[in-house]
Fold this protein.
Amino acid sequence: MNNNNINNIDLEAGLDSPATISRTTPVKNGDDSNSISSATLVHPSNSYLAFRIRHFSPAWFSAVMGLGVSSAILYSFPFPHEGLRIAGMAVWGINVLFFTLCLTMFVLRFILYPEQLKRMLLHPGQSMFLGCLPMGFATIINVLHLMSQDYDMPGTWVACYVMWWIDTFLSIASCWGVCYLMFVYQKRPNLEAINPTIFLPIVPLVVASATGALIATSLPQSLKASTLIVSFMMWANGQLLAIACMAIYLARLFLKSTQPGAIILSTLLPVGPMGQGAFGILLLGDLYKQVFAPYSTKHYTGIIEVTPQSVDAISFVTMAVALFLIGVGLFWLTLAAFFTLTTPPPGYNMSWWATTFPIGTMAMAWYHLEAEFNNSGLKYIGALFGCVVLMNVCICFVGAIKHAIIKNTVFVQAKNETSPEE
């Protein structure tokens, strides 16, 4: 009697348990052959960790952004309390560890699975999230700078300055590089294929410009002018592109209605460049005064010499621009709220993190407006935005634990984007 080898294969890529391969080998006793099962083998590409590394999406850096802006909100809360500062520093520390983990998994993905790099770059969805990496990194720099202002941390300005330049190059690469990929290699056949993620590669320029203006307050006077120039050019570049993308996205909404429910929360993304742009231009106005005030004279004789009145006028201009951007941001925020109420998201996915950073930028803008106008009423508006962000971060964090650690729902979604045939 002849018995053939029987291979039982359980390959359920995307399910919670790792794929296993059970093999049976024949053992002959005289004329009969009995089958004895060997040890179960775990397929290396579908193990718990390997599956998550292979399908680690850059969208995870949006979680770094959410945690980062929540740490800044806690640390700079308009109603200061030492407990809130400690909580902000604790969240910042968690975010640094989380950013390190995400960066490690992101790099390992392309070292262990090189084919994933091209797939990610050419995918019209995943590649957009590359901009989340420099934005998440910028939030870490911001809070580090804030802590250095309140605690004795000598030499921190050097670390912040170096990290800001790294973030600047990453932001430029994200914006210009991904835009090139969008224009040349990625296919969007019609307006219906346009979604708010097109803002993600652009906003890093606005975020990096605000970070530059923020850390410049602790830089030597000789470095402030160059930081102002680079930061303002990035702000202008990012803000102009963001407004252009808004026009395109508005056309999509007029002609093709709202987004599918699965990504309806991403309609909050246009709020980001408006809130961050307002925050950034206010900081740039403050930096302008620091740079040019020492050169102010009663009589204008050159580009570097300005009158005291012109220095003060910059504050009014930047406040007007900031109010304009906040007004547009409130429009998008209200629109996104109505969209979400009429088309609720079906379940957790990475687009939920869009409810954190964009609203957080509005909170930071209101924080700074309160300081400029010295109006205590603005404190309550900023505090309200801040509390909403903190609540959303908690919800998203719990969802990430459930759907990425306990289950692997979000990794299956990423797999279906870049490796649907597997």
Summary: Residues 1-43 have pLDDT under 50 and may be disordered. Residues 1-46 form one domain.
